[in-house]
From TrEMBL:
The keyword DNA-binding applies. One of its GO terms (cellular component) is cytosol. Residues 4-31 form a coiled coil. It is found in: Cytoplasm, Nucleoid. Gene3D superfamilies: Nucleoid-associated protein YbaB-like domain. GO terms for molecular function: DNA binding. Keywords: Coiled coil, Cytoplasm, DNA-binding. This is Nucleoid-associated protein AWW68_17600. It comes from the Bacteria.
């Protein structure tokens, strides 16, 4: 039979685990590269850019447009990696807390 108190306890436990997982996202760092590593971007799991490193050989007026494109590509690459890692962490933190309900993926909440 369905135990409502047990279910409520699981929901509270899941909320605590989700909060803990969200707090950890700040410490996840992923690096994305573009232009064979000439432009690197580091972002965290909260999708904030931490740093950008640009090879000195790209720092000329003639290469401004290429440099902009490479910077955007490196940031997007790092964001994709950080997003995937954040989803893994949240899934890992909440694994086993809720029943496996088809179509309910808690990793997609963030």
């Amino acid at each position: 039979m369905f135990d409502m108190m047990k279910m409520m306890g699981k929901v509270k436990e899941m909320q605590a685990k989700m909060k803990e997982a969200q707090e950890k996202l700040e410490f996840i760092e992923e690096t994305g590269e573009a232009g064979a590593g000439m432009v690197k971007a580091v972002v965290n799991g909260k999708k904030s850019v931490i740093s950008i490193d640009i090879d000195e050989s790209l720092l000329s007026k003639d290469d401004k447009e290429m440099l902009q494109d490479l910077t955007v590509a490196a940031i997007n690459n790092a964001m994709e990696k950080a997003d995937a890692r954040a989803k893994e962490e949240i899934k890992k933190s909440t694994d086993g807390l809720m029943p496996n309900i088809p179509g309910m993926d808690l990793g997609n909440l963030f």
